[in-house]
Design goal:
The protein is of the alpha/beta class. Helices cover 41% and strands 21% of the residues.
Length: 342
């Protein structure tokens, strides 16, 4: 059985890391076929009139799975984030960022093993902003009970399937009593009614961040609303080597998009310096998801081979400069391929 996946190479270093990952997937006999579509600046360069072409969205709806490289988002102006548009258009309401210590990647922390589950469609990222008067702007934080309930259910189901033992909800309900208050109300309901076997607690976001940097091993799954999850997932990535060492995925009820969560790094594009590890780890997540969804053992086998291979390469110091190695993008891909059957 072969599964068709939409490949969105992305901008900047995106095409390089995407190409490297596809080489590794093919060498691991992953049962995947790719159809390429574009988003972001690459979509404009390919002749489309919009940053998120309808053809790209429809292809993901058709095939259900997508692997996406980084897309450029300007700061403080310009076009709206392609990533946000993709999540909203496809109703990809659950963002998942596993963060774990990697062999051979030395940081200040050891034995980190966290999963950040982030509500992906509401909060301040709803993008509802208005000019109130000259020099005064209002940004509205949007929360709905169905979305709060939906992400809590998703997190507890994930914990059960992955045999995780505890969920901690991060919030600021002491100040935002209505929006964050509703978020933790729904989390409590799901825990008490449906998943009492999973340990559950709540923590105010600022104190939680302090506790995270003191000892991340006291946490397991972190359940966050949109903005908190965005910030906390990058904070946690810094504990294990940065955004180049962490995967990401966005899940809806039917579609799933797996992505590199780092930037497009146009300053090093085309120089064989980019690290494909994050996108490779995301591809491994995708293979495991397909295995779970469609009971395809070949996907699980390929995912395990790839994970063992990149762990071995990292352990041996065979990686790119951002993680202390001396290899380029293609060199790292070859190092992983050489270890696939080791």
């Amino acid at each position: 059985m072969s599964h068709t996946v939409v490949m969105i190479p992305g901008d900047g270093i995106g095409p390089e890391v995407s190409r490297a990952v596809r080489l590794i997937l093919a060498a691991a006999d992953a049962p995947l076929e790719f159809v390429e579509h574009h988003a972001g600046e690459a979509a404009l360069a390919a002749g489309h009139n919009e940053l998120l072409p309808k053809e790209t969205v429809e292809a993901i709806r058709q095939y259900k799975y997508a692997l996406k490289g980084p897309c450029t988002t300007p700061v403080g102006g310009g076009f709206r984030s392609v990533n946000v548009a993709l999540r909203k258009t496809l109703k990809l309401y659950a963002a998942v960022r596993p963060v774990r210590s990697l062999p051979g990647v030395k940081t200040r922390y050891e034995n980190v093993d966290l999963v950040i589950v982030r509500e992906n469609t509401e909060g301040l990222y709803s993008g509802v902003e208005n000019d109130i008067t000259d020099g005064v702007v209002c940004s509205m934080k949007v929360a709905t009970r169905p979305a709060c309930h939906r992400i809590a259910m998703w997190a507890f189901r994930y914990a059960t399937h992955r045999q995780r033992t505890k969920i901690t909800a991060f919030h600021k309900a002491n100040i935002m009593k209505m929006s964050d208050g509703m978020f933790i109300e729904e989390s409590r309901k799901v825990h008490e009614r449906d998943y009492p076997n999973i340990k559950y607690n709540e923590m105010i976001i600022d104190a939680a961040c302090m506790r995270l940097v003191q000892d991340p091993t006291q946490f397991d799954i972190l359940l966050c609303e949109n903005l908190y999850g965005d910030i906390v997932s990058d904070l946690c990535a810094g504990m294990v080597g940065g955004l180049g060492a962490t995967p990401g995925a966005n899940f809806g009820d039917t579609e799933a998009v797996f992505e590199a969560v780092h930037g497009s790094a146009p300053d090093i594009a085309g120089q064989d310096k980019a690290n494909p590890l994050a996108l490779l780890m995301s591809a491994t997540m995708m293979l495991n998801h397909i295995h779970t969804s469609e009971a395809d053992e070949a996907c699980a086998k390929a995912a395990l081979k790839i994970k063992n291979a990149y762990n071995s390469a990292l352990h041996d110091g065979k990686t790119t400069g951002d993680l202390g190695g001396e290899l380029g993008t293609e060199g790292f891909a070859q190092a992983v391929i050489e270890r696939l059957n080791g």
